[in-house]
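Hey, weird one. I pasted the Dehydrodolichyl diphosphate synthase complex subunit NUS1 sequence into the form twice and got a warning about non-standard characters only the second time. First submission, copied straight from the form history:
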Amino acid sequence: RWRSDGRALRKLPVHMGLVVTEEEPSYADMASLVVWCMAVGISYVSVYDHNGIFKRNNSRLMDEILKQQQELLGLDCSKYAMEFANQDQDQVLNCQSTLKVLSPEDGKADIVKAAQDFCQLVAQQQRTHTDLDVNVLDNLLSSTNGFPDPDLVLKFGPVDSTLGFLPWHIRLTEIISLPSHLNISYEDFFSALHHYAACEQRWGK
C-alpha cells in the first residue's frame, strides 16, 4: 500500500521536515511518521523539536524507528532502509532515505557559525567578501550538509511558529499545521501529503 500511495500523488516532497512544538514529544509517534515517510518514498526527513529532546535522546528515537520499521514493513523492511545522518556518527543501512535529527542549535547558531567561518576564510585571504552568495552559505551550513531545502514541513502542536527550525532553508517551504503528533494516524499523514500534492507553489511570485 505504501508505495502505491506515494506513486498516486501528483508530487511528493523530496525533503520533509517533522516539527514538534508540543512540550511532551512521543518517540513512538515520531517513529511512525518517519517510517511512513520512508515507505511512501520520501528521500530526506528532518525531525525537530524546540527543546532538542529528540536530538539529546537520539539513540532512543533510532531504536524506536528500527523497531517500527520491522513491525510496520515486516519482510519488506530491507526495501525501506534508512541512513541515520547524525553529526556525531553515521549509522548507514543500504539507504533509500536519510534522516537528520535537529535542534535549535542547528538553526540560527549554525548560520552564525557559517558567517564566522566565512569571515575566517576572508581573513586568511582564501575568499573575498564578494564571494558570499546563497550557494556559498549553503555549503558552509553543517546542519543540512548534503540535504536539499525542505519542500514540506508538517508542524505539530498549537504554537503558530516553527520555533527556529532551519530558518535559512524554509523560504519556499510549504508548511502544514496539524493539531498534534500524539496518536497521529496514517490517514492524517497521507491527507497532509495529499494537500501538499494539490497545492500550487508560486516560488514567491
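That's the output from the first submission. The warning seems to come from a hidden character in my clipboard, not from the data itself. The longest helix spans residues 58-73.
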